[in-house]
Specification:
single chain, 500 residues, alpha/beta, Urease, subunit C, domain 1, TIM Barrel, 15 helices, 21 strands, 21% strand
Length: 500
């Protein structure tokens, strides 16, 4: 059965705006007063003065028509990382399972209906922020173990219904970080369970690859590198090659992870992955922050060279990294080494524009140079390089033959100020709420910030209630099982209504 998708407009659609980000000779170009024409799922023309017949014309005015963003680590969650914003250290605040919780038996904290809502609500948020291709990511901290094929069948239905281009696959693992009674961090493993989850993920890929007319594709998603055993990673790599799907492995994202892998295997995470033959042509590695030779890791080594030489992609998520006091060291160095860098949101809000803004600021600070990176470096990462990372030269660029995935970004709002260059202005003053229209696969999935069939206010209320219910259950999986008030601090003293 084919999953239902929104209807496409019949005939050719011509869109025009003050600026169009076209593509020629392997590079983005800026077309002033440019035109884009698409029909069905494909772009027919990008340029000036289209001479053919069209069914409709849409003048976007003082705006920029651009390729939709490719989010390689796309939030598909009611984001729990924001709970750690001012609540640290993580192992004391429910971000690492205590041994007592493991021994009592971890349990699901959302039911299937809540998980389905979580995905659909997040997918609508991605569309609102101009993300047209998404590789979803959600926390496993509140899960019984990994994600399930059933919830991803629901996710596929939601993505198709909304018109989002998505690469889907349930996350799986053979281990998990555990905090012992004395506060030390160790690992707990259940390899048979994780291998069974991998088999289920493979069956999901076989069932859903190419669904909804190609809008739904699949991937393999082993969880963080320190939660995986060698056999799981070997089998994952073999399956990814056989299925020809991307494989995403969170890697080099924390000191705990780096030190744990080094202690267990005598190698850094990239060295260990290389020894297992893990790398394929579509390996995605969020976050690539803790690597040899960086300010974060004193150990010398070839971590970045390994990633580069195997054609893997660093998935850069500067907003969530910066919130936790981290930054890659640094974007310009990775770029100049020839490492492909794509972008991910990985936190709320899933605002790719904000991520690019934070990224360029952090990159210049880390490099100690205002000239280290430019606006187009980050715009390329969010479009071209993300598409190339998953083997899709038909995405991330507006040119004839590419998929009709495009966004309209309003440049005529009071906060925008004066437009100097549309991309530079976007990275100075724009945000995700400036995305007014989204076209994916030739379907108008959002117009004037309205997504058909989505009640934004009602969904926000439901999301808040669901999130508060999750927070209330934090004590059972927090070290020492403190009350909620001790886990989550308040900025100032709270005085409740009716208090004397």
């Amino acid at each position: 059965m084919t999953l239902p998708t929104p209807d496409r407009p019949a005939g050719r659609t011509l869109m025009t705006a003050r600026w169009v980000v076209g593509h020629a000779a392997g590079r983005h170009v800026l077309l002033e007063h440019g035109e884009v024409v698409f029909e069905n799922d494909a772009i027919l023309f990008v340029g000036h003065r289209f001479g053919g017949e069209v069914a409709r014309r849409i003048d976007c005015g003082q705006a920029m028509i651009a390729p939709g963003f490719v989010d390689l680590d796309a939030l598909s969650d009611l984001d729990t990382t924001i709970l750690a914003f001012d609540n640290q250290p993580a192992w004391k605040k429910g971000r690492v399972w205590p041994r007592s919780y493991v021994e009592a038996g971890p349990r699901e904290m959302y039911d299937r209906e809540e998980l389905a809502f979580q995905k659909a609500h997040a997918f609508a948020g991605l569309i609102r922020n101009g993300i047209t291709t998404a590789l979803p990511i959600a926390s496993l901290f509140y899960r019984q173990w990994g994600e399930t094929p059933e919830e991803f069948a629901d996710a596929a239905e939601a993505a198709a219904r909304l018109g989002l281009r998505a690469y889907l696959g349930p996350a799986y693992r053979t281990g998990n970080q555990v905090v012992e009674a004395d506060g030390t961090i160790t690992a707990h493993y259940d390899e048979p369970r994780g291998l069974a989850e991998l088999d289920a993920a493979i069956r999901f890929c076989e069932r859903f690859e190419g669904e909804a007319g190609g809008l739904i594709r699949t991937m393999l998603s082993p969880d963080r590198v320190e939660t995986c055993t060698p056999e799981l990673l070997r089998r994952t790599a073999a399956a990814a090659r056989a299925l020809d799907v991307p494989v995403r492995q969170h890697c080099c994202q924390s000191k705990i992870e780096y030190d744990m892998v080094l202690k267990q295997h005598g190698m850094s995470p990239p060295e260990w992955l290389e020894s297992l033959g893990f790398f394929t042509g579509k390996t995605l590695l969020p976050h690539g922050t803790y690597v040899s030779g960086s300010r974060h890791v004193g150990r010398p080594g070839r971590d970045l060279e390994i990633i580069r030489d195997h054609g893997a992609t660093i998935v850069h998520c500067p907003l969530v990294s910066g919130r936790h006091g981290n930054v890659i060291d640094h974007f310009a160095r990775y770029r100049d080494m020839g490492i492909r860098i794509g972008m991910g949101t990985d936190t709320s809000p899933p605002d790719m524009i904000m991520n690019m803004q934070v990224g360029i600021i952090l990159a210049r600070v880390a490099a100690g140079s205002v000239t280290a990176v430019r606006a187009e470096d980050y715009f390329d990462a969010a479009t071209i390089h993300g598409a190339d990372a998953i083997g899709r030269p038909d995405l991330g660029r507006l040119q004839p033959g590419a998929k009709a995935d495009l966004i309209v970004i309003d440049l005529d709002r009071p906060h925008t100020g004066q437009v100097i260059d549309p991309v530079q202005t976007l990275l100075l003053a724009g945000h995700g709420r400036d995305v007014s229209t989204v076209v994916i696969d030739g379907r108008l999935v959002m117009q004037d910030r309205v997504i058909p069939g989505v009640d934004e206010a009602a969904d926000n209320r439901r999301a808040q209630a669901q999130f508060e219910g999750l927070m209330a259950r934090y004590p059972e999986r927090t070290h020492g099982h403190p009350p909620v008030e001790e886990i989550f601090s308040s900025s100032y003293r709270v005085i409740r209504a009716g208090a004397g």
